Amino acid sequence: MSHELRVERLIDASPVEVFDVFVDADAQKEWYLDPEHPGGIVETECDARVGGLWTSAWGPDEDELYRETCVFRVVDRPRHLVMSCTATAPDGRSLETEVEVTFEEEGHRTRMTVVQRGFPTPELRDIIGGGWPLALEQLERSVLARIRRSEARSGE
Q: What kind of fold does domain 3-154 have according to CATH?
């Protein structure tokens, strides 16, 4: 039996703005970091096209990095992404999941929904799922910061 998790966040930005920050490697380095544990390492590269790879590594130091490689199966900018992902823990254990992300316009905002499928147990789903709300909160901060920087530049 496979278990799935679902996380949603309403972000005060357009789907294009949210989508672009989600797949931008420089922005990913911002929203991967946990503000509660500064000093972590984040490496990421993202080629957001069908067949392209999103590779990331994160953790407290070089000896304790979690790694994930995702292959984009669907890229419909700015509405929809589907990726097949393999995550590997520092101890070598791995997990294969499918991640589907939608970006739905609601007025002047975007409802971002992440559905991750393929967890073998509810416990593992809940452990990994606990990171998504913080990541989406950080993502929203990155999106809003980019909007403010863009507005400041256009006002100069």
A: Alpha-D-Glucose-1,6-Bisphosphate; Chain A, domain 4 (3.30.530)
